[in-house]
Design goal:
Radius of gyration: 23 Å
Strand content: under 5%
Number of strands: 0
Order of helices and strands: HHHHHHHHHHHHHHHHHHHHH
Number of helices: 21
Helix content: 55-70%
Largest sheet: none
Shape: globular
Mean pLDDT: 87
Structural class: mainly alpha
Length: about 425
């Protein structure tokens, strides 16, 4: 960290300490009025509890705003700020501030994955308890990246304690098929395990992804393997490490077992783009040359994923990128990959609906249907709620595609998992 950054972080620490003193002073008169005898509950006590809850929420939000204002999009800074806060505040305040920080990043940045990933690692390290850490993770914020970081840190602890890799059991860590657990939440949790497995096996993707077979549902195996390959890609982008071969641009995907090759190729495009100097035409051409050819479509889907952030500056340009590939029968795959990523990043369907409205006519029907699937599996709306959401579409002719989207989870899996 540069001297200037250290000085600024120290300044933030001073502000945080000063803010905590102000809140503590403000609390004194309220706490002093609590005179009720033990075992009784009075109206004044109820008011005091409400006031204290408000003070707590205001305090954590204030800290989160300060951290957000200071750190902006520096991925490591929020973790350092929380460590500073921990020197003066209770765990409840620190964890409350953590939750508010993640929410602010989700609301203010189109892509907060890397920051939330680091925050997830910090969260597990801070709580030292997987179950407690998971209770603070909101899968729909920042693309579920807090979960990814939690499991990465959880499995890293295995190295620290010299536990044999194969002694880690993984199938009990997430609530598969438990009542009232949204499929998206399950999927993101298991995806996070994949991130941790990549770390556990020192980025030997063959060994890491083999553990994903321990999950029974095919979608769970897919989600786990995506976590392995996504973490491998993040490792490359951050450190130029990971499981890659400079003499073979398709490695490790071309040596991965066939059932997990789609997930590997789905996350491979950023590596190809880096090797090509971000030349999109050249990268699509490399997707075209994948063998067996049946896996090329997943590379196109991954191109859509990799390029999705362009939607927030120019949706028309983002859509046009998907048509740079020579394989016209895979253009829709690129658009699907882009749309899926938009929906996951934004959570709400608004940006997805706008994306559909700007798409070419031949893609519009399935585009609106995918948005409808997302709405249905995200919030289980009643018919009126579904119609209100779908009616936000600019294309009145396609609202019915959104409303009539297949409600079956099996169909959702086929659309949202690269299987």
């Amino acid at each position: 960290m540069s001297p200037v950054k250290k000085y600024l972080l120290a300044s933030l620490f001073v502000v945080i300490v000063a803010s905590s003193l102000v809140v503590l002073i403000a609390q004194q008169p309220i706490l002093a009025t609590s005179k009720a005898s033990p075992g009784t509950t009075t109206i004044s006590q109820t008011n005091i509890e409400a006031d204290n809850a408000t003070l707590f929420n205001n305090q954590t939000k204030s800290y989160a705003e300060q951290i957000m204002t200071f750190c902006k999009n520096d991925t490591h800074c929020p973790v350092l700020a929380l460590d500073k806060l921990n020197k003066t505040e209770s765990p409840q305040i620190v964890l409350g501030t953590f939750s508010d920080v993640v929410l602010l990043y989700h609301e203010r940045y189109n892509d907060c994955h890397d920051t939330a990933h680091h925050l997830g690692m910090w969260l597990h390290s801070y709580t030292t308890d997987l179950k407690e850490a998971l209770s603070y993770a909101k899968p729909l914020l920042c693309g579920g990246a807090v979960l990814h970081g939690i499991f990465q840190d959880y499995f890293m602890a295995g190295h620290i304690h010299n536990v044999d890799n194969n002694q880690f059991t993984i199938t009990h860590l997430c609530p598969i098929s438990q009542e009232n657990v949204n499929w998206i939440h399950e999927r993101d949790c298991i995806h996070g395990i994949g991130h941790g497995l990549a770390e556990l096996y020192d980025y030997n993707t063959t060994a890491a992804v083999a553990r994903c077979n321990e999950f029974e549902p095919e979608w769970a195996q897919s989600a786990c393997s995506r976590g392995v390959f996504m973490q491998n890609m993040l490792r490359y982008l951050e450190t130029r490490g990971g499981d890659f071969d400079k003499n073979n641009i398709y490695f490790p995907c071309d040596t991965t077992v066939a059932k997990f090759a789609p997930q590997c190729y789905y996350y491979h495009p950023p590596y190809l783009m880096e090797r090509n100097g971000n030349n999109l035409t050249a990268t699509f051409a490399q997707c075209d040359n994948i063998f067996p050819t049946e896996f090329a479509r997943y590379c196109y889907q991954g191109m859509g994923r990799a390029l999705y952030s362009t939607v927030y500056t120019s949706a028309e340009q983002a859509i046009a990128y998907c048509y740079l590939g020579n394989q016209s029968n895979y253009h829709d795959d690129c658009l699907r990959g882009m749309l899926r990523t938009i929906l996951k990043a934004d959570v709400k369907a608004d940006v997805g609906l706008q994306f559909c409205s700007l798409s070419r006519p031949d893609f519009k029907p399935q585009c609106y249907e995918i948005v409808g699937m997302w709405i249905k599996m995200l919030s289980y709306p009643n018919q009126g709620e579904l119609e209100r959401e779908c009616s936000k579409a600019d294309d009145r002719d396609y609202v019915i595609n959104c409303i009539n989207a297949n409600p079956q989870t099996s169909m959702h899996i086929a659309v949202f998992e690269p299987i």
